[in-house]
């Protein structure tokens, strides 16, 4: 089970923390008896707020824990401080109680708002609203969390507080991430990161990177998740230890453990969870203790270490009961039900799951609903109740499709890639600017003697920079065109797999699930097995078709020349004569060149068949020492290349050119009405 902990303190721009574990791989479902559907889908319980210290005396908190801090604040409050000091204490108690008691945190939050409004202190009021946003987030009340964060945002916007807005972007992004608005969340994280990088704020940059790492955990992109979270950990490990830094390490080791666990690197995941548990115990952070033990308990269930699992889950449950959250308490029952299923106690697990399901549906805790549907499918399947198993399995699939959106994941990842590209471009331009300024400074020393020469050189340099910018812009356009084509191809393949092969395999699986019912009826048993065989044959045919579309078998097994001959043989008909001439084409040509030429020739033939009305195509491919030259000519009706937009059914003219330019080649199209079409391609091979 996945459990998410978000950590927020706007003045310190905290990261969020996800503390997770996955279902046992030994659970069976109607779709598979050995693995969980879709690589052990994670169930996420977004439940809990951590804290970071920004109190005025933060440098003296190294030896303190939460209980001591709260006790000291209450002691100061009992001394009848002035109005400003009282408001400040209420604000801090709101924040620190978020990790101990939601009820107390909300109570002090109301007092803080009342006291701060009387003072007309807009800076402190913005902080209080931010703290209340964090408390509501801790209680899974994302609507009120967003509401309070936006109030703080409006105040800081009026104040033109750019740093505060950047930190709020992190907090609002965590709310949107929790409600599965991944594109919006990634956009806000990157806006915050851009600001902190520009200001040289290394600390907040690393906090934001940890947030982005957690988002990649949600997207199941473990490689990027480990990259970002490890970078943040390395930074915090290099800092002087304080309660704030210890909490950062606590949260990030837990998130790193989750990423390793999703990679099935269980030994490394256990190591990270244990590091987090040790740090949380050291500073007395009960939430961290609870979730670290819960993760370890679920990890031990997967490894069938029952005694260790029981100890850790018991510790987690005892601490969790203090959080004052119904969702927190009920989600712990999912772990218990999971353990019961492993032991074969299906009826006990069913009663527990049916008891907690209404709470999750009422609170719209979708990740916990997904977990419960999954386990109920498992229970009913193992107790021979196929109708009930199918009912919950369909609810599981419907909700899972709602939460897992391939396009959202792709777009969100693309945002991060574009940010990294822009960042690199900016660094290059900054470096060029430094070089330019240095050259100007050196040249200025000799300005009296070499003014004319310096003027000429500076003008030449500016022209070179402009030329380089133009080249970079053209390369960027070409790259975007290729990326768009590749994204469209991936989407098409994903749709083919989901709607074609996926449905066939699901149908086969459903038939396999009823075989036992007909094992004593040979005739029906034979019909079902034959039906399964036919379905699997269709699936195999679909996979072969998709594989050939991705990379022709002839091109994989042989050379480009043989692949083209095979293509021409399959394309030629009595109504369309296709002539192919090949000269000097070697088998050792770079694979990228072979694939590009094959696809473009294939696309040109397809366009001729669809649009030109030609009855003849002449194709020539010639290789010299330095280049490969290709010419494709038909006798069709022709067209005006300047008026043709990109064809959505194929690569399209722009993407054909972009692929050639990526290989540093050239492409020219010569066509007009009633004149046919000629395509010239030249690609260097040196």
TrEMBL record:
Residues in TPR repeats: 126-159
GO molecular function term, any single one: phosphorelay sensor kinase activity
Matching SUPFAM superfamilies: ATPase domain of HSP90 chaperone/DNA topoisomerase II/histidine kinase, TPR-like
Enzyme class: transferase
SMART domains: HATPase_c, TPR
Entries under Pfam families matching the protein: HATPase_c, HisKA_3, TPR_12
Gene Ontology CC terms, in alphabetical order: membrane
PROSITE patterns xref list: HIS_KIN (PS50109), TPR (PS50005)
Domain Histidine kinase: 496-686
Reactions accelerated catalytically: ATP + protein L-histidine = ADP + protein N-phospho-L-histidine
Protein name, as recorded: histidine kinase
């Amino acid at each position: 089970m996945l459990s998410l902990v978000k950590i927020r303190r706007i003045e310190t721009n905290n990261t969020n923390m996800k503390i997770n574990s996955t279902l046992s791989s030994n659970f069976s479902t109607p779709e598979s008896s050995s693995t969980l559907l879709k690589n052990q889908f994670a169930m996420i319980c977004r439940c809990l707020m951590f804290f970071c210290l920004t109190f005025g005396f933060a440098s003296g908190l190294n030896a303190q824990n939460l209980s001591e801090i709260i006790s000291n604040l209450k002691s100061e409050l009992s001394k009848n401080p002035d109005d400003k000091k009282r408001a400040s204490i209420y604000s801090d108690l709101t924040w620190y109680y978020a990790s101990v008691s939601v009820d107390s945190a909300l109570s002090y939050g109301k007092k803080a708002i009342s006291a701060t409004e009387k003072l007309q202190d807009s800076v402190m009021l913005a902080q209080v609203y931010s703290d209340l946003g964090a408390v509501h987030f801790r209680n899974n009340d994302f609507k009120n969390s967003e509401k309070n964060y936006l109030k703080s945002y409006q105040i800081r916007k009026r104040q033109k507080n750019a740093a505060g807005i950047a930190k709020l972007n992190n907090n609002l992004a965590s709310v949107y991430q929790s409600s599965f608005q991944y594109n919006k969340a990634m956009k806000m994280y990157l806006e915050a990161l851009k600001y902190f990088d520009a200001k040289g704020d290394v600390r907040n940059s690393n906090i934001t990177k940890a947030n982005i790492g957690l988002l990649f955990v949600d997207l199941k992109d473990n490689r990027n998740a480990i990259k970002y979270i490890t970078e943040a950990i390395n930074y915090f490990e290099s800092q002087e230890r304080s309660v704030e830094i210890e909490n950062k390490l606590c949260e990030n080791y837990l998130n790193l453990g989750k990423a390793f666990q999703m990679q099935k690197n269980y030994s490394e995941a256990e190591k990270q969870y244990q590091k987090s548990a040790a740090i949380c115990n050291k500073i007395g952070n009960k939430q961290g203790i609870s979730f670290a033990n819960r993760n370890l308990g679920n990890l031990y269930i997967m490894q069938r270490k029952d005694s260790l699992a029981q100890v850790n889950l018991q510790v987690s449950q005892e601490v969790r009961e203090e959080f004052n959250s119904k969702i927190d308490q009920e989600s712990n029952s999912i772990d218990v039900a999971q353990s019961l299923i492993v032991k074969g106690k299906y009826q006990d697990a069913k009663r527990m799951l049916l008891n907690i399901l209404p709470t999750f549906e009422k609170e719209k805790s979708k990740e916990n609903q997904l977990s419960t549907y999954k386990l109920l499918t498992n229970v009913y399947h193992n107790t021979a109740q196929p109708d009930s198993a199918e009912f919950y399995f369909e609810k599981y699939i419907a909700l899972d499709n709602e939460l897992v959106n391939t396009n959202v994941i792709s777009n969100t990842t693309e945002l991060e890639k574009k940010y990294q590209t822009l960042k690199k471009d900016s660094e290059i331009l900054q470096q060029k600017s430094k070089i330019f300024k240095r050259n100007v400074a050196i040249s200025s020393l000799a300005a009296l003697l070499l003014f004319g020469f310096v003027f000429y050189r500076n003008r030449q340099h500016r022209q070179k920079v402009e030329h380089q910018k133009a080249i970079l812009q053209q390369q960027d356009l070409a790259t975007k065109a290729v990326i768009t084509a590749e994204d469209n191809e991936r989407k098409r393949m994903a749709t083919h797999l989901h709607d074609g092969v996926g449905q066939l395999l699901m149908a086969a699986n459903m038939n396999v699930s009823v075989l036992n019912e007909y094992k004593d009826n040979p005739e029906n048993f034979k019909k079902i097995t034959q039906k399964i065989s036919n379905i699997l044959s269709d699936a195999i045919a679909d996979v072969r078709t998709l594989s050939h579309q991705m990379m022709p078998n002839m091109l994989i097994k042989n050379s480009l020349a043989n692949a083209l001959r095979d293509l021409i043989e399959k394309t030629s008909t009595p109504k369309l004569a296709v002539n192919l001439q090949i000269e000097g084409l070697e088998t050792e040509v770079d694979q990228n060149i072979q694939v590009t030429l094959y696809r473009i020739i294939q696309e040109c033939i397809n366009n001729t068949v669809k649009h030109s009305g030609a009855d003849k195509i002449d194709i020539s491919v010639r290789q010299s020492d330095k280049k490969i030259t290709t010419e494709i000519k038909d006798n069709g009706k022709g067209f005006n290349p300047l008026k043709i937009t990109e064809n959505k059914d194929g690569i399209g003219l722009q993407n054909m050119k972009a692929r050639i330019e990526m290989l540093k080649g050239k492409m020219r199209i010569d066509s007009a009405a009633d004149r046919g079409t000629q395509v010239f391609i030249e690609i260097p091979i040196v």
